[in-house]
Automatic annotation (TrEMBL):
NCBIfam families: phosphono_phnM, PRK15446.1-5, PRK15446.2-6. It is an enzyme of class 3 (hydrolase). InterPro entries: Amidohydro_3, Metal-dep_hydrolase_composite, Metal_Hydrolase, Metallo-dep_Hydrolase, PhnM. Keywords: Hydrolase. Its EC number is 3.6.1.63. The keyword Cytoplasm does not apply. This is Alpha-D-ribose 1-methylphosphonate 5-triphosphate diphosphatase. GO terms for molecular function: hydrolase activity.
Length: 377
């Protein structure tokens, strides 16, 4: 099967140009600059690689469309897939939590089992048009992490593992007063807040250190990329890198990001952080890291569309990045972090995962999406 495009603003590696592109049997066969009379006329729209999302919580939103209401998990997976494709995401790492740090029903064991079974059913039946993989978010403070991860790590869609610790008073929730104020706003008494804090800190004390070693060993044994989440200081980064982590995801301070750069880790920030102008937890802004040269990639976190917006937002002031450099933040860099060498860049021999985009008043509008040369959106 062949597919051709012409008059496209092609973002290919470190350069961009008006040219043409030929797809053959799901791969990019030829890329050329200049005029052509062959293929679909893209009218000068941007043609870029498909977006690679290393971390999205979006699947759970479709499984739990309202609090305490669960949807058919196969249907949720199909809807989630379509939503991602509509905003240019062609490779998705569905982030699912193993082990609980709060009472969220989306992370209860039975719900998690149904969700991953539904995702697998949809995947095996060919219902998913994009490429989906699972990123297990391992809550290292959990009393039940090991027994659950032993089973879940063998899931055929497992592709990435991360180390997490959401104990209030450090990392993402280092502003403990702000965090506990939310608890009080939801009706918890001062005594209940103190009890919950004490329980969380006790779990961290008995579980976090040995569980981190266990998770790192499991990732190494299976050849999976290991990610460290919400690093706060140099010690967090050093420990993670020594355990084999190659990605620092959502560091919460400049200090942690600098140490991650020193240790050769890929630094990933959340797309909503850039688009909203900062972290909802009050941590370091993605914009600050971009200005300091401490930003390698974005992940969508909880808004899939944030990725395509990040790629175009960062080309504007005050950043002024070139479009190829900006596009790499959501394509080539995350693909490299995941160990995917077949995508993330427009070049002969790569997968024909492609996105057509037209900026309208500064807003990127996705006008077409192809996965392995097949139109999916």
């Amino acid at each position: 099967m062949e597919l051709a495009f012409r008059n496209a603003r092609i973002v290919a590696g470190e350069e961009e140009f008006i040219g043409s592109l030929l797809v053959r049997d799901g791969e990019i066969a030829e890329v050329a600059s200049g005029a052509s009379t062959v293929g679909e006329d893209l009218e000068g729209d941007v043609l870029m690689p498909g977006v690679v999302d290393l971390h999205t919580d979006n699947l759970e939103k479709h499984y739990f469309p309202r609090p305490n209401i669960d949807w058919n998990p196969v249907s949720a997976a199909v809807t989630h897939d379509g939503c991602g494709l509509s905003v240019g995401v062609t490779t998705t790492y569905d982030s699912l939590s193993v082990g609980t740090y709060n009472a969220s029903p989306a992370r209860a064991e039975e719900s998690l089992r149904r969700l991953v079974d539904g995702l697998l059913t949809a995947w095996r039946a060919g219902m998913l048009k994009g490429d989906h993989r699972i990123h297990w978010r391992c809550e290292t403070t959990s009393d039940h992490l090991r027994e659950r991860l032993d089973h879940l790590a063998d899931h055929p869609m497992t592709a990435m593992i991360s180390l997490m610790d959401h104990t209030p008073g450090q990392r993402q929730y280092r502003n403990v007063e702000k965090h506990t104020a939310n608890w009080r706003a939801n009706g918890m008494t001062d005594l209940a807040v103190e009890q919950r804090l004490a329980e969380a800190r006790a779990r961290q004390s008995r579980n976090a250190a040995p569980n981190r070693v266990y998770v790192a060993a499991l990732a190494k044994e299976r050849g999976l990329p290991l990610v460290s989440h919400d690093d706060e200081d140099e010690a967090h980064v050093e420990e993670a890198a020594d355990l084999g982590a190659t990605v620092s995801e959502f560091p919460v301070t400049i200090e942690a990001a600098r140490k991650a750069r020193e240790r050769g880790m890929v630094i990933v920030m959340g797309g909503p952080n850039l688009i909203r102008g900062g972290s909802y937890s009050g941590n370091v802004r993605a914009a600050e890291l971009a200005e300091l040269g401490l930003l390698d990639a974005f992940a969508s976190d909880y808004v899939p569309r944030s990725l395509i917006e990040c790629a175009f937002r960062i080309t504007a002031e005050p950043f002024g990045w070139s479009l190829p450099r900006a596009v790499a933040l959501v394509t080539e860099a995350p693909a490299r972090a995941a160990g995917l060498t077949d995508r993330g860049r427009i070049a002969p021999g790569r997968r024909a995962d492609l996105v057509r985009v037209r900026p309208v008043d500064g807003m990127p509008v996705v006008r077409g999406v192809w996965v392995k040369g097949r139109r999916v959106a």
